[in-house]
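Aim 2 progress. For Polymerase nucleotidyl transferase domain-containing protein, the working sequence is reproduced below.
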Amino acid sequence: MIFNRHTGIRFGNRSGCYKTGDKKQEKSMNTKFKGLFGLKKLVDFIVSDYKPERIILFGSYGSSAEKKSSDIDLLIIKKTHKRFVDRVVEVIQSIRREFGIKYPVEPLVYTPEEWEWAKGMNSIFVRTILSKGIVLYGKE
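Predicted structure tokens for this construct:
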């Protein structure tokens, strides 16, 4: 069970659904992920296959502004020495191999040091992830 004290979201309960305390938001989040194959399955797979320190959902799904054509934006933090582009390709290929479909996931993979540096830059992009992103795995 993962609990984000900022958003109040509990993730990973028996049904694999989100519990936010906001019934409208819960219905929206649970419906959209059941329609794909389940965000919990995706996160569980990434955690077991890729061993990240943290996974944060951001973008339109993270702020409940998604459309039918929206992709799933994930910030993945992992200790690695691989080049940035190689990390992203590795995650995408792994997801495609596992699920056998072109799944609409756009991962960004940062090392812990890169993420700390990015937070220090104080860009709008990073501030948005920090304020609206949902921690799906790991510590805040």
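The chain is about 45% helix and 20% strand. This observation will guide construct design in the next reporting period.
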